[in-house]
Structure formats: C-alpha cells, structure tokens
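Dear colleague,

Thank you for sharing your sequence with our group. We've completed the structure prediction you requested, and as agreed, I am returning the results in plain text so they can be pasted directly into your records. Please verify that the sequence below matches your submission; if there's any discrepancy, let me know and we will rerun it promptly.
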Amino acid sequence: MSYLALARKWRPRRFEEMVGQQHVLQALVNALDSERLHHAYLFTGTRGVGKTTIARIFSKSLNCEQGVSSKPCGECASCVEIDEGRSVDLIEIDAASRTGVDDMRELLENVQYAPSRSRYKVYLIDEVHMLSKHSFNALLKTLEEPPPHVKFLLATTDPQKLPVTVLSRCLQFNLKRMSPAQIRQHLSALLQQEGIEADEAALRLIAHAADGSMRDALSLLDQAIAFGGGEVRDAAVESMLGVIARDFLIRLLDAVIDQDARALLDETRQLIERNPDYRRVAADLLDVLHQMALYRSPARIEPEDGLMKEAIIASAQRLSPEEIQLYYQILLQGRKDLELSPDEASGFEMLMLRLLAFSPQPDAASAPAAEKKSP
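Please find the predicted structure tokens below.
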C-alpha cells in the first residue's frame, strides 16, 4: 500500500480527538446535543488549525445513522463515507477554483432537492473568501433561507474579505493558532503510537517552526522522519530547518554582554560555516530576548523554553530591561536589512557587530570628560 502522510493518517475523526479549539467545540457539541442547529456556520483561522476537519466531523454528527449527536458512531455507512471522502450528501467545494457566478448558480440549482441518503445535504465551501462579488450575490438569498434539509459550512483564512451580508447570515467561529506546547505534546503522543524515537529538543524545534499550524507541524514531522532515517533527532532537525542550537544563541548574546568582540566574531563565523537560515537565526535571537524581557518585567514570567530556561534566566539577570529592549529593536530592524546586504552572511556578521557597537557602556560616557580635564 502507498504511504499515507501523517497529516491525513492522524486527521481527527471525533471532536474528542481535536487539539485545542475548546471554545469552538463546546458551542458545537452543545448545539448538536440540544439540536439547536443553525443553517450556516463560518469557520475562520489560519491554515492548519482544523477548520475543514471540524466541518467534516460536524457533518458526520448531522448525518450519523444513529441520530444527530456530538458523538457520531463512526461505523455506519454515512460516517464511513464522509471519512473516506465519498459521501454524495457532503458536497465539498474549493472556492479558489470555482470562483465564477456560473459555478455558484449551477451549485444552487440542486439545493432544492432532498439529500440522496442522509438526513441533511451539507455544503462545505473552503476558502470562501475567494468567491467573486457576483457569486456572493447569487449565494445570499439561499444562504439566508435555505431548505430545511440543507446546511452550509463555510471556511476561510481571510474573513475580512467576506461581505458583511454574508457574515451576518452565519454563526462565526474563530479558530486560534495552536501553542507550541500543544503541538509538541500532540507530536510526542503521535510518535509513541507510531513507535518512532524522538528527541524532546527536536519536537520543540518543529513545534516552533509550525507557527501555530498543526498541519504544518505534521508535514515537518514527516520530513524530519525521512531526513533522520526513521528517527527524529535534534541535530538532524536543526540541519533540516536551517536553525542553530539554542545554546549557540546564548553564547552569542553572552559575548555581546561581555563586550568580547573576539568571542562574538568566533561564534558568528562558526555559525556562518553551518550556512543556516540567517533570518530564522535572527528570529530565534528575538525569541530569546522576548523571554528575557518577560523575565525582567515586573510580572517576572519565567522562560517557556524548558531546555534553556536556566541559561536564559542567567543571561537576563546580566541585562537591564532597557538593554534588552535596545538589543531587541536592533535585531528587529537588522532582520529586515539582511535581504539588502550584499550577502546574508556578511549582513548577519554586521548585525552582530552592530549589537556590540550600540551596547551601553557605563564607563565610556565619562571617559571623554576625564580626557578634557587632563593637561
């Protein structure tokens, strides 16, 4: 049999299997169990957070042969057909490829007909913001007063592009980005079931690189397993993602704090030899400084990075909150300037020297005055 990608193999099939999004799940579960069902739902959020997955589970809940419930059986013909993507009463439309008004009119011509086998005919329109203005106009009346056997489930990554007239006809649910901790825990549980060994640090890197998207995390995990020959190891993931070890970041910052130009250049050139993604390295430095700033703030929030927690705290204690903010601002602007430099390696080296040049030096301010007094 052909290999099935992890993102497809481990797609949740029940609400209980979803990671996060409890604010959405609670509303849908209560609506299903009490059968207070609206005719149109809009799911919004960034890519890979579960919009289409929730819509499919909702469709199973509506059409399960055991009855409308938040816990579809998953075994009846209707549930199996939806899971396998071959249900005739779940009509999935990719709005990005069917944007024209003629496509929408053709679709709406069949709305009046009863479902073939199921309780409801469900229209799942993905990336609905891609529809043309005329398509939205054609959809409005049906979306407001559809036949009792029809439900509309809309999904979009950009709700700002939807007309207000569409938004007002739907119950809107905004799905949140997933936290790195949620992603890491899910990947760890998944790998245990797959029987694949993994380093905790490697999973942290993948969770951070996923940027809140579980689908991105699973795709990166697939790539890491292939890259590591069936294992997910820290060094392999660093190489795959073009990132550097967190302790390397601390050594760079410590060299700046110590005003040790030689150590800073040595560390920077060792980094350059690895040919990393320099913009990502700058972003990782910004993340470390962000954790330092939170620790040095009146709230005294400890670093989230469990592996480097003590090192981050130790470095943060050597800087004032103002110095952390200064370094953060220099790196933030310098990250934008990397693409303007002759090559990113020299641009990154200049960025490190800029951190050194603009580091506050308490003794330097008094030096010129002392020189003026001397004969």
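Summary note from our side: The chain has three domains: 6-174, 180-241, 246-361.

Kind regards,
the structure core
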